[in-house]
Design a protein that fits this description.
The complex is a heterodimer of chains A (about 110) and B (about 110).
Chain A: E1 4-7, E2 10-13, E3 19-25, E4 31-37, E5 43-49, E6 56-57, E7 64-67, E8 73-78, E9 87-94, E10 102-103, E11 107-111
Parallel strand pairs in A: 2-11
Antiparallel strand pairs in A: 1-3, 3-8, 4-5, 4-9, 5-6, 7-8, 9-10, 9-11
Chain B: E1 3-6, E2 11-14, E3 19-21, E4 23-26, E5 32-38, E6 44-50, E7 56-59, E8 62-65, E9 75-77, E10 86-93, E11 101-103, E12 107-112
Parallel strand pairs in B: 2-12
Antiparallel strand pairs in B: 1-4, 3-9, 5-6, 5-10, 7-8, 8-9, 10-11, 10-12
Classes of the chains: A mainly beta (about 110), B mainly beta (about 110).
């Protein structure tokens, strides 16, 4: 099925560990985004990309890095995880003039 | 900057009751407005949209009208079902700004039989 696929779905990290979250879309969308969702705070934009090889900072980029080497993939990295990064992470994609976002099903990350 | 304010939840209704979830926004220019729905354990799904003033978006019995004069985009449904229980997010997007969206905090709806 066409859409946005996120891996992994769940992960528990220890403080200081690193990991990479993968987002893949098969809709040929130009734009891709990483959001985090925390209780009572809605969705906050971490980083985004307007095309292959380009990335930009969103609202809450500290502690995260991203890469978009291929148009269909958008990777989110945590170099040294902190408990404050415990959250649900959503990837989304959008066509340039599309009607709205297509979201992945999310990654639930717990940092202990 | 842009902002979206939704009515605070949670909202609990009986089946077949009428639903209104308020959403107001602050933005420059003429953004597109959206409602997304998130079912438990899932990602957000686009529910409906409106791209200009006085447009009405509709889907699955839900409706919302883009009111520029009151900067509002309230979500309505005439008769809710148990299956409508979910979290609803209002959002706005400027298509000229890398398509970035600003989301409200979400409103949790629970419908009881």
């Amino acid at each position: 099925n066409a859409g946005v696929t996120q891996t992994p779905k769940f992960r528990v990290l220890k403080t200081g560990q690193s990991m990479t979250l993968l987002c893949a879309q098969d809709m040929n969308h130009e734009y891709m985004y990483w959001y985090r969702q925390d209780p009572g705070m809605g969705l906050r934009l971490i980083h985004y990309s307007v095309g292959e090889g380009t990335t930009a900072k969103g609202e809450v980029p500290d502690g995260y890095n991203v890469s978009r080497l291929k148009k269909q993939n958008f990777l989110l990295g945590l170099e040294s995880a902190a408990p404050s990064q415990t959250s649900v992470y959503f990837c989304a994609s959008k066509n340039t003039n599309g009607p709205g976002y297509t979201f992945g099903s999310g990654t639930r990350l717990t940092v202990v | 900057g842009d902002s979206v304010t939704q009515m605070e939840g949670p909202v609990t209704l009986s089946e077949e009751a009428c639903l209104t979830i308020n959403c107001t926004y602050t933005a420059t220019g003429y953004p597109s407005l959206f409602w997304y729905v998130q079912y438990p354990g899932e990602g957000l799904q686009l529910l409906l949209k409106a791209t200009k003033a006085d447009d009405k978006g509709s889907n699955k019995g839900f409706e919302a009208t883009y009111r520029k004069e009151t900067t509002s985009f309230h979500l309505e449904k005439g008769s809710v079902q148990v299956s409508d229980s979910a979290v609803y997010f209002c959002a706005l997007t400027h298509n000229t700004n890398a398509g970035k969206s600003t989301f409200g905090d979400g409103t949790t709806l629970t419908v009881k039989p």
